[in-house]
Amino acid sequence: MARAAVSGRLAERLRWRVARLVSFGDETEAARTLVFDVPGWPGHLAGQHVDVRLTAEDGYTAQRSYSVASAPAGSQVELTVQRVADGEVSPYLADVLEVGDQIELRGPVGGWFVWRAEDTAPVLLVAGGSGIVPLMAMLRVRRAAGSRAPFRLVYSIRTPEDRYYQPELRHDDPGVDVTYLYTRKAAPDGARPPGRISAADLHSAGWPAEFEPACYVCGPTGFVESAADLLVSLGHDPSRIRTERFGPTGG
Amino acid sequence: MTYELAERYEDGNALAGPLAEIFAVDITSATGRCTECGTSGPVATLRVYVHAPGMVARCPECDHVVLRLVRGPDSAWLDLRGTVSLRFPLPPATD
Question: Nearest by CB to B17, which of A107, A242, A245?
């Protein structure tokens, strides 16, 4: 399992594999989690992503990258896809694909934005919108491995309705603190007025810089830039801040 | 709008899949050095513009083009002229 990434070497050449949809569930109005069975899946690390390729009947292909949402579990791979208006790929994955349908997938790829269960340092996860996906994989791997590394998740979304993984993130995971930041509409019981992530948010919901936490920031480019800058301004060492930006390509 | 154009990038993590077709190890965890300003950092932290023909990776410090990759139907073209060196983390060498 995940031998490739552990040794830094790819266990085998990257190749396209057939992935069959076995189930799906909606996270929000705009996002759906898809569970694929991928025979021969070599396993993955939390934070890695896959490339998905769709081929039309006329041979036209479109390719996108998606973070894996699940902890490694045999040949099953879960992706959460946010529907991008006018997108080529995401509306198909989120609306059209039915159980039993097949797509092509290759991976896992990426060895930098990853968390390993052997890591014992405190972890700060900072998610903007659908940037929660690879961070959720980290929380799931932590739980699956019985890790006691202390985690804090700061999750910025527009409204309470935009939260992914709700039943699961709400249930109490010992050693994991979750803070939601709403940018447009606060929760009914929320004391914090809606607004973008601030130094005060990261100060109160994150770790002190002296704890030397590993920081993982994922979201749209603008969000990642400002969250990473805020962490540096709070004294976090830039070498301990890992970022993953979602580009504008989406779709 | 220039501001928007400047924002239209992803980071070096986006290179992981395309470059895994070429390299035997993960290149996004490798440390690269920019020929222009000498900054060293993980390839994962480069700014990658995917709206150019192919992918163009720029130095996050000075914006110099560090790496370009074009994948054609039957070949890949990798331009590393902006890269002094790449240092790959590897397990201990065995004989």
Answer: A107
